[in-house]
């Protein structure tokens, strides 16, 4: 039975990878920053009707060497999913960029030394779409230029970490046979296996609860989290994917399109108005999350997934349905939380 290590096993994408691997009969190791997450992970898998008998969890952190030797021991493959993910601009961008790139190299060195056959790295379309060319249509041949002022810290971290991974794979130990495939997802939505809905779904949450009164002119590809995990697992099995960057994206939409899907399906608080760019930039002066996106307003980004479909036989679900599944889960979690708070208040009387 082949063994796969999934880094960031408690995360939004990582947990879906763990679930799909277990369902397909792999032995799975998962890394977490704290073993206090173990019960949460196992409960989430149980709720998804996934047997976790073949899952073991190991404490390991991207910032430390401790734990990685044990994590990769006896593994045939590694899915390196763990990475800092945030919206907005942190106070110390280099700190987060260094965690992403140094952490990636730390894991690749450990995996290479352990004789791992293949590593699949989770990157992002954000490592592809931001450059000087004024393009609207992007492919795996394109690279983000991290020196551009408009590039967010998150996109810089993904670009620099992916560059480091390719440099290691192409110029590392000449005796190494470890293959590398990189998966470049667009904006990831869809239901979580745990109460952690993921950062991207936070956009949907703010739309349906009315805390986002208007959208701004941002255009991205969107993809379901389950299809992102599926692409990772398919890449493990495909020698044709060795040495390839692979975009996974189902369709492109403006944020106003996402809001309309939600309104058309009964989420009446979803915004009807798209702010003019000049107003979005004005609000960005007072809101760090908006500020980080105002430099890319109005830019279309078309990221086709032809390579994923041709090489991996990847067939994604309609992401418009995924958006609604996210909205339903968010609503259910909020209702459950409200009920719990009400019960606690009643019990305290």
UniProtKB/TrEMBL annotation:
<protein>
    <submittedName>
        <fullName>Aldehyde reductase</fullName>
    </submittedName>
</protein>
<keyword id="KW-0560">Oxidoreductase</keyword>
<dbReference type="InterPro" id="IPR050425">
    <property type="entry name" value="NAD(P)_dehydrat-like"/>
</dbReference>
<dbReference type="Pfam" id="PF01370">
    <property type="entry name" value="Epimerase"/>
</dbReference>
<dbReference type="InterPro" id="IPR036291">
    <property type="entry name" value="NAD(P)-bd_dom_sf"/>
</dbReference>
<comment type="similarity">
    <text>Belongs to the NAD(P)-dependent epimerase/dehydratase family. Dihydroflavonol-4-reductase subfamily.</text>
</comment>
<dbReference type="InterPro" id="IPR001509">
    <property type="entry name" value="Epimerase_deHydtase"/>
</dbReference>
<feature type="domain" description="NAD-dependent epimerase/dehydratase">
    <location>
        <begin position="4"/>
        <end position="242"/>
    </location>
</feature>
């Amino acid at each position: 039975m082949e063994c796969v290590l999934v880094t960031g096993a408690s995360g939004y994408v990582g947990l879906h990878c763990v679930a799909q691997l277990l369902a397909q009969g792999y032995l799975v190791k998962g890394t977490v920053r704290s073993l206090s997450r173990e019960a949460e992970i196992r409960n989430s898998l149980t709720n998804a009707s996934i047997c976790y008998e073949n899952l073991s969890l190991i404490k390991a952190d991207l910032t430390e060497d401790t734990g990685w030797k044990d994590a990769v021991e006896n593994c045939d493959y590694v899915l390196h999913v763990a990475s800092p993910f945030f919206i907005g601009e942190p106070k110390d961008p280099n700190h987060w960029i260094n965690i992403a790139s140094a952490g990636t190299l730390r894991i690749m060195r450990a995996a290479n030394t352990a004789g791992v056959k293949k590593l699949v790295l989770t990157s992002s379309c954000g490592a592809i779409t931001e450059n000087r060319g004024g393009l609207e249509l992007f492919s795996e041949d394109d690279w983000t230029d991290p020196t551009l002022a408009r590039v967010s810290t998150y996109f810089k971290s993904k670009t620099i970490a992916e560059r480091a991974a390719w440099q290691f794979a192409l110029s590392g130990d000449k005796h190494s046979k470890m293959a590398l495939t990189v998966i470049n997802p667009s904006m990831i939505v869809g239901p979580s296996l745990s109460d952690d809905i993921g950062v991207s779904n936070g956009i949907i949450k703010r739309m349906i609860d009315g805390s986002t009164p208007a959208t701004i002119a941002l255009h991205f590809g969107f993809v379901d989290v389950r299809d992102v995990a599926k692409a990772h697992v398919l890449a493990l099995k495909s020698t044709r994917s060795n040495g390839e960057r692979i975009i996974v994206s189902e369709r492109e939409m403006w944020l106003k399109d996402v809001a309309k899907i939600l309104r058309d399906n009964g989420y009446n608080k979803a915004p009807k108005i798209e702010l003019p760019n000049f107003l979005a930039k004005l609000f960005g002066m007072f809101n760090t999350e908006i500020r980080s996106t105002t430099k890319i307003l109005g830019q279309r980004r078309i990221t086709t997934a032809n390579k994923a479909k041709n090489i991996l036989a990847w067939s994604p679900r309609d992401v418009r349905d995924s958006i609604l599944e996210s909205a339903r889960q968010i609503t259910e979690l909020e209702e459950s939380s409200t009920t719990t708070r009400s019960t606690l208040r009643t019990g305290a009387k």
